Amino acid sequence: MSIDSATVRHIARLARLAVAETELESVRSDLARVLHLFDDLAAANVDNLNPLAHPHDQVLGLRDDVADQPDRSEELLALAPAAQGGYYLVPKVIE
């Protein structure tokens, strides 16, 4: 696809970008290279390729769901200034 200065101005206006007249040629060249890259990617032969969900074959190590720390809730509640029914009591901050 050929890109001219008018196309660059139009794309810049749609993208709400300010492109100075002195930068038009540089932006046009960059856009042309990007489109050429997409053309190359579209032409790549991807037949007989399996899709990859992740580039590495990773397996999550599972462990048994067992508590490995003792229950210290009563001990920690005893440190609070006020507690009731297993909950910390805090002052009301919202009216």
UniProtKB/TrEMBL annotation:
<protein>
    <recommendedName>
        <fullName>Aspartyl/glutamyl-tRNA(Asn/Gln) amidotransferase subunit C</fullName>
        <ecNumber>6.3.5.-</ecNumber>
    </recommendedName>
</protein>
<keyword id="KW-0067">ATP-binding</keyword>
<dbReference type="Pfam" id="PF02686">
    <property type="entry name" value="GatC"/>
</dbReference>
<comment type="subunit">
    <text>Heterotrimer of A, B and C subunits.</text>
</comment>
<keyword id="KW-0547">Nucleotide-binding</keyword>
<keyword id="KW-0648">Protein biosynthesis</keyword>
<dbReference type="InterPro" id="IPR036113">
    <property type="entry name" value="Asp/Glu-ADT_sf_sub_c"/>
</dbReference>
<keyword id="KW-0436">Ligase</keyword>
<dbReference type="InterPro" id="IPR003837">
    <property type="entry name" value="GatC"/>
</dbReference>
<comment type="function">
    <text>Allows the formation of correctly charged Asn-tRNA(Asn) or Gln-tRNA(Gln) through the transamidation of misacylated Asp-tRNA(Asn) or Glu-tRNA(Gln) in organisms which lack either or both of asparaginyl-tRNA or glutaminyl-tRNA synthetases. The reaction takes place in the presence of glutamine and ATP through an activated phospho-Asp-tRNA(Asn) or phospho-Glu-tRNA(Gln).</text>
</comment>
<comment type="similarity">
    <text>Belongs to the GatC family.</text>
</comment>
